[in-house]
């Protein structure tokens, strides 16, 4: 009986320590992890999300990224990006082409707001999707 208790105790201690090390060394395995906003995959996902966002609004002016608040990625069947951004209205109308667009300097016209985009990218099959958008 004593051997059984020692084995069980060691098993419990091992399980707890394994969990602590897994979480302490980079987060939950398979879960989202922070990524540099300048990462090429993040930039591609963000540009795609903003274009889709602008297509879906009834606004006269295009929105642009004012600030990237947070960027995370998760390895799935491809890559899933979770990007929180502050957007603001630009000086360009939606139907304009080849213009350099800047964010309105007047806060009343810029009307900044925050969005969280979830983008799923599978570049080997040329597929990218805006899975979720919360603004």
TrEMBL record:
<protein>
    <submittedName>
        <fullName>Cystatin-like</fullName>
    </submittedName>
</protein>
<dbReference type="GO" id="GO:0005615">
    <property type="term" value="C:extracellular space"/>
</dbReference>
<dbReference type="InterPro" id="IPR018073">
    <property type="entry name" value="Prot_inh_cystat_CS"/>
</dbReference>
<dbReference type="Pfam" id="PF00031">
    <property type="entry name" value="Cystatin"/>
</dbReference>
<feature type="domain" description="Cystatin">
    <location>
        <begin position="27"/>
        <end position="133"/>
    </location>
</feature>
<dbReference type="GO" id="GO:0005737">
    <property type="term" value="C:cytoplasm"/>
</dbReference>
<dbReference type="GO" id="GO:0004869">
    <property type="term" value="F:cysteine-type endopeptidase inhibitor activity"/>
</dbReference>
<comment type="similarity">
    <text>Belongs to the cystatin family.</text>
</comment>
<dbReference type="InterPro" id="IPR046350">
    <property type="entry name" value="Cystatin_sf"/>
</dbReference>
<dbReference type="GO" id="GO:0031982">
    <property type="term" value="C:vesicle"/>
</dbReference>
<keyword id="KW-1015">Disulfide bond</keyword>
<dbReference type="InterPro" id="IPR000010">
    <property type="entry name" value="Cystatin_dom"/>
</dbReference>
């Amino acid at each position: 009986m004593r051997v059984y208790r020692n084995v069980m105790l060691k098993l419990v201690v091992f399980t707890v320590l394994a969990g602590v090390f897994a979480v302490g060394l980079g987060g939950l395995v398979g879960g989202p992890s922070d990524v540099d906003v300048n990462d090429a995959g993040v930039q591609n996902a963000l540009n795609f999300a903003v274009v889709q966002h602008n297509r879906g609004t009834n606004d006269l002016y295009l929105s642009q990224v004012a600030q990237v608040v947070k960027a995370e990625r998760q390895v799935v069947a491809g890559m899933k990006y979770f990007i929180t951004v502050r957007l603001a209205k630009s000086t360009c109308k939606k139907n304009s082409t080849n213009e350099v667009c800047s964010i309105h300097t007047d806060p009343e016209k810029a009307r900044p707001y925050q969005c969280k985009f979830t983008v799923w990218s599978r570049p080997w099959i040329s597929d990218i999707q805006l899975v979720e958008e919360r603004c």
